[in-house]
Structure to design on (512 residues):
């Protein structure tokens, strides 16, 4: 069902009052809430601001760490970033109430308002171009700006569609002062892909004159920009499904077409310690917090070593035997190359021993050209391997099992994991299991909330006491996020949420 949204409130939000910058540095606005863009350089400045806002809204710890914990990618018992609440077992619903602590509300507020602000910046640029503001009179530089604006809207709508059940789709032609509709995530997702495709067409049409300078420290020419946009289109299409059944209805042919033209490099903007930082500072080993930040969830330890339990024994709670062997063994070389073992956990048992794990991620120590620490250096968010695995999955879902196996064997499974190739006649489920394993292990810490998106669509839900290494989300885990309570209340809409005992699949809206 479509929801009406009162546009007067959205106008305030889109005017720059939610931003990675302080209000003192907010852009100059006209009475109708638009940024003042009067010359060509203003177009580029608006885009720089918009891309930084988008980056912060998607790659900040509030959504990324919390969703990683509830996906059993990370183990973290602390209240920071809403992690403890999202990691309770049995799973609880997301409490979509204004009375909740700021860190917890930020799980929905940061990506919601940040993505909408980024859309607003893109809209301001496109509106200014339509009114004659120009760098080179509709030449290659103007077209590069236009493509960047389309891509920014596509990236923002794409993540809104992956994470929220509904969102407004507001473009430069939307009339202010009226109402707009909240569109279902399927519609928002389709619009995101359309925007990315429009950006690709502009980039390819401008050839060698195209330039994109809005990802910090990572300029893109027309070819690399198009690859990135193709990959994000493939990601948005592939990971939008909320359930196993819905995953079967994905347009896998479209995913394949985009992935085949996708990334041939690892996409990793450079951190600057300011607007361009990443949640990875809290999920990598040897950060300032030492052993007390996030660890590799025990379910993924069990993915490496089938002799390990997928859930850490709850000794204090029910008298089960403690973990007999804390150090895992694996034929996968990445257990020792990418992760560091610690005999001491450092988490309090009274916060739930299901959080316990003896492994932290240390890939930045062996691949510093790929990983920084989230405050300086590269911030990988879309690996070439990710695109290859999307291609493999699309092949698998379109009944090309052998071809899918070949793509998997030609990638990280053998090159970094030193695992044996899949057999020539490997059946569908074996190839799918290898695919999900690679997505969980090779892509760990590289794409925000990726395992949350994969578990919800590739495997059935599982009870908290009966989880398997590569199984689905735990029963009661929110599989999508609600519109923030602050937004709902101001617009006279009833507060709702997902997950918990009343919504075990995490996709059925319930009201307070």
């Amino acid at each position: 069902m479509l929801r009406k949204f009162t546009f007067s409130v959205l106008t305030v939000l889109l005017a720059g009052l939610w931003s990675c910058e302080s209000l003192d540095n907010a852009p100059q606005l006209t009475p109708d809430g638009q940024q003042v863009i009067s010359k060509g350089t203003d177009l580029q400045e608006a885009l720089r601001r918009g891309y930084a806002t988008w980056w912060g809204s998607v790659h900040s710890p509030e959504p990324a760490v919390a969703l990683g914990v509830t996906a059993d990618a990370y183990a973290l018992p602390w209240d920071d970033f809403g992690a403890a609440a999202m990691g309770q077992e049995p799973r609880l619903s997301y409490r979509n109430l204004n009375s909740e602590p700021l860190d917890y509300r930020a799980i929905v507020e940061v990506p919601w308002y940040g993505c909408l602000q980024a859309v607003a910046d893109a809209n301001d640029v496109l509106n200014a171009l339509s009114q004659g503001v120009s760098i080179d009179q509709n030449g290659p530089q103007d077209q590069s700006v236009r493509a960047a604006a389309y891509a920014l809207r596509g990236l923002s709508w794409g993540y809104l569609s992956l994470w929220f059940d509904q969102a407004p789709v507001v473009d430069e032609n939307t009339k202010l002062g009226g109402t707009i509709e909240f569109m279902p995530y399927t519609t928002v997702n389709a619009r995101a892909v359309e925007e990315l495709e429009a950006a690709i067409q502009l980039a390819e049409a401008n050839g060698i004159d195209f330039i994109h300078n809005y990802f910090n420290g990572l300029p893109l020419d027309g070819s690399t920009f198009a690859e990135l946009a193709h990959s994000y289109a493939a990601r948005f299409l592939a990971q939008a499904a909320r359930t196993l059944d819905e995953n079967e209805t994905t347009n896998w042919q479209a995913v394949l077409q985009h992935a085949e033209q996708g990334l041939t490099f690892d996409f990793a903007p450079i951190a600057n310690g300011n607007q361009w930082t990443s949640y990875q500072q809290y999920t990598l080993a040897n950060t300032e917090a030492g052993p007390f930040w996030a660890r590799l969830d025990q379910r993924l330890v069990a993915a490496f070593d089938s002799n390990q339990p997928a859930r850490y024994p709850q000794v204090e709670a029910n008298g089960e035997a403690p973990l007999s062997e804390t150090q895992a063994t694996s034929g996968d070389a990445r257990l020792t190359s990418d992760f560091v073992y610690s005999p001491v956990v450092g988490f309090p048992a009274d916060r739930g021993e299901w959080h316990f794990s003896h492994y932290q991620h240390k890939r930045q120590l062996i691949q510093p050209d790929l990983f920084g620490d989230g405050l300086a250096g590269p911030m990988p968010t879309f690996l070439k391997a990710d695109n290859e695995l999307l291609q493999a999955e699309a092949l698998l879902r379109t009944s090309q099992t052998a071809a899918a196996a070949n793509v998997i064997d030609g990638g990280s499974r053998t090159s970094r994991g030193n695992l044996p190739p899949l057999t020539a006649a490997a059946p569908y489920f074996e190839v799918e299991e290898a695919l999900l394993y690679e997505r969980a292990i090779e892509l760990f810490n590289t794409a925000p909330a990726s395992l949350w998106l994969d578990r919800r669509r590739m495997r059935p839900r599982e009870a908290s006491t009966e989880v398997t290494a590569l199984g689905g989300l735990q029963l009661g885990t929110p599989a999508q996020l609600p519109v923030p309570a602050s937004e709902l209340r101001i617009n006279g809409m009833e507060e709702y949420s997902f997950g918990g005992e009343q919504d075990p699949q995490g996709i059925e809206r319930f009201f307070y």
Notes: Residues 285-361 form one domain. DSSP finds 20 helices and 13 strands in the chain. The first strand starts at residue 3 and ends at 6. Confidence is low (pLDDT under 50) at residues 1-9, 11-33.
